[in-house]
């Protein structure tokens, strides 16, 4: 898919979900994946992914060259937290653009935070991550993880023009490994990758998603 389809697009919502029932697993018990604490919460929810997503993440790490590792930032996000993020960002956009319609706000918000009824994070299907060196230094990706379109002037888009060559190469390195492992990217966020959710199904042409939003047991 060459066009950028946003999470708010009706084609994403139209994808059916046939829930697999896979468990949410704690990434931290798999010692080969480095976990950054910046999104840590009291329950440890942030460090969980569906079993199939974690397996593919481990595969992607094997595909990286020596001296480069994945740095996991955030996985599962409880539905209530996702809704809070979406509403807060939508409120900020309304304040900055008082003339926008409700649909314009929803569409713009979905560049950065998925509508809660669609959210891959709430299905345990999405992961925000970057790359790090063997000595623990984050590689240059052109923006920080979770930089908004406003903050980054659009540089958060995976294929944004004007990204320095080294950052472009690092984004390509990350993308090649994750794509080979079966994940898909949300093209407005270079750090956001998913498997098994509705957006993944749309991009890959799957008949249905295998993971839907759920509460953590």
From TrEMBL:
Q: Which residues bind Zn(2+)?
A: 121, 128, 192
Give the EC number: 3.4.13.22
Keyword annotations for this protein, in alphabetical order, are: Cell wall biogenesis/degradation, Dipeptidase, Hydrolase, Metal-binding, Metalloprotease, Protease, Zinc
Asked whether the keyword Secreted is assigned, the reply is: no
What cofactor does its activity depend on? Zn(2+)
Pfam hit, one = Peptidase_M15
Q: Which reaction(s) does its UniProt entry say it catalyses?
A: D-alanyl-D-alanine + H2O = 2 D-alanine
Residue numbers annotated as active site: 189 (proton donor/acceptor)
InterPro entries (UniProt xref): A_A_dipeptidase (IPR000755), Zn_M74/Hedgehog-like (IPR009045)
Q: Which domain of life is it from?
A: Bacteria
Site description Transition state stabilizer, residues in chain: 77
Q: How is the cofactor bound?
A: Binds 1 zinc ion per subunit.
Which enzyme class?
A: hydrolase
* Recorded family membership: Belongs to the peptidase M15D family.
UniProt-listed HAMAP family: A_A_dipeptidase
Q: Describe the function of this protein.
A: Catalyzes hydrolysis of the D-alanyl-D-alanine dipeptide.
The record ties this protein, via PANTHER family, to: D-ALANYL-D-ALANINE DIPEPTIDASE
- The protein depicted here goes by the name D-alanyl-D-alanine dipeptidase
Q: Which organism is it from?
A: Streptomyces coeruleorubidus
């Amino acid at each position: 898919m060459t066009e950028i389809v946003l999470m708010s697009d009706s084609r994403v919502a139209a994808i059916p979900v046939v829930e697999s029932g896979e468990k949410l697993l704690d990434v931290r018990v798999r010692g080969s994946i480095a976990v950054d604490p910046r999104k840590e919460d009291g329950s440890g929810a942030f460090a969980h992914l569906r079993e199939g997503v974690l397996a593919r993440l481990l595969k992607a790490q094997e595909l990286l060259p020596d001296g480069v590792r994945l740095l996991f930032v955030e996985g599962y996000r409880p539905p209530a937290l996702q809704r809070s993020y979406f509403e807060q960002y939508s409120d900020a956009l309304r304040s900055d653009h008082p003339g926008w319609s409700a649909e314009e706000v929803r569409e713009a918000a979905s560049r950065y935070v998925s509508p809660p009824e669609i959210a891959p994070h709430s299905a345990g299907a999405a992961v925000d991550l970057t790359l790090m060196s063997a000595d623990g230094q984050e590689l240059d990706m052109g923006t920080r993880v979770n930089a908004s379109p406003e903050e980054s002037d659009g540089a958060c888009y995976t294929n944004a023009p004007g990204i320095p060559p080294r950052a472009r190469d690092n984004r390509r390195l990350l993308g090649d490994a994750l794509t080979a492992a079966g994940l898909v990217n949300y093209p407005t966020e270079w750090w956001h990758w998913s498997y098994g959710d509705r957006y993944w199904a749309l991009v890959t042409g799957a008949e249905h998603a295998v993971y839907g939003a759920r509460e953590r047991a």
